[in-house]
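Task card 7
Instruction: Convert sequence to structure tokens.
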Amino acid sequence: MGNNHSSSKNAAEYEELDLSHFRMHQVIGKGGFGLVRIVEVKTTKQQYALKYINKRQCIKKDSMENVFRERLMMQELDHPFIINLRFAFQDDEYMFIGLDLALGGDLRFHILRQAGLTEQTIKVYSAEISLALSYIHSKHIIHRDLKPENLLIDLDGHVRITDFNVAYSTKVKFPSSRSGTMNYMAPEMFSGKRYTYAVDWWALGVVMFESFYGIKPFRGDDDRQVVHQIKSGELHFPKDYGIRGTTKPDSSNLFKDIMYSLMTTTPTKRLGGESMDAFSNGISTHEWFGDIDWPSVYERKVFPDFIPDMSKSNFEAAPALEELLYDSSPLTPKRRKKKTITDNSVVLNRDSLAASLSASLTSSPSTSHNSPNMSNMSDKEKQKEQERRQMAFIETHFTVYVQGSGIGVLDTTTLNRLAIQNSMHKLNLDESRAFSSARYLSPLAQGNGDERQTLSASASTSSKGFSCESPKASLAIPIKASLISAKLFENKAPSRLVSENPFHKRPTISPSKSDLGEFK
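Output:
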């Protein structure tokens, strides 16, 4: 009876997670509707990247559905080479999304700074990206925007995929729209026909080429020329490719071969083909990866020969300067005034998102006593009412989220998971690197020894490849702000998370999935 009583409490009885739980640090990036800054949990010194999205700007740009879709999609992902979603909440002005922090900056920054990367570094990065893409595809998702700006480098020099804003769920059908960044789009994305997971492998080939040579393989004076170059698929490996006058050894023949194989214009002939098993069907077995120990790569035991200097900033200064000059409303902790009572028995997911949003915007007095009839309104009044309804939708549905759980619900491993955020960093960090700058002090420096813990890991292996799925069983537990701050973020020695390791033979438990639908 006690459990039933506690689980039936109204969500309004729980004090929500808010900015007061964090210390604000420097801005490190800019999104479409706000900035990204480093934040630190006050109780543990744990650091995250906090992305904050202005609600009204998001509504005006008709992008609210995209924001919700990206969040709902990321709630299903957890991988060592992805920037994972860790928590989410809102106040009256912003939606906040807490992500893994990668202090090494993005790949674009280092391609330019290092005058191109070495082949060995690119090989390690490509192996890590390949594992992440294979995992993403196993979830029936195409990323569609793989590029250097969306590949972040963490404390140990490992690469992580970020930005799922234009990602697409293939559960029901494959996409046909042009989406992504033109220079990295595969030729079939310009055909108007449906395309497959192979577009992400094409983009990986483009990233490999640019990382080494410092220039994009398909270029032109305008978009029309770029598209023509992409469709032709003609690859030319430059002989004089030094950036800023530098030179380095040419790429190996095997490196050129895998780039050719990935940037083949016919998807069915592309390395790995069009299936979600492309990693096992050709990528991982290519001779260029012949010296790669894939299980060790997954466990983050293989390191590139380049690791960013954490004593220096690895981010562009422009976003921070922009905040200083133009932000009239600095980010400060404030309690929500418009807190909406929500029904926790109704779970918003990728399948129900479009229908729920549509219903909230088109409801009439007969279906909702809070929504006035818009048929007799002027255009200006209709626009204002639509904005009000969208704000109400955000207030109702952008609920507090902590590592896979909504307010009032914790899965059985959340308490452990939240105590070891970013724990995929190797635990025997070189002290000089971990403490190289107090400004960039790693929270993992609190670790002691090589303690390991396996959390909700499941995988199956076969001759055709592997599938990775996480059990989503959850336990209903009331959660208050005191629990969030004192328990979820309590100061524990971080453990290595080996969640969903495809090289660990365990039973596969498949959660239900739903179609994300195509982005506008």
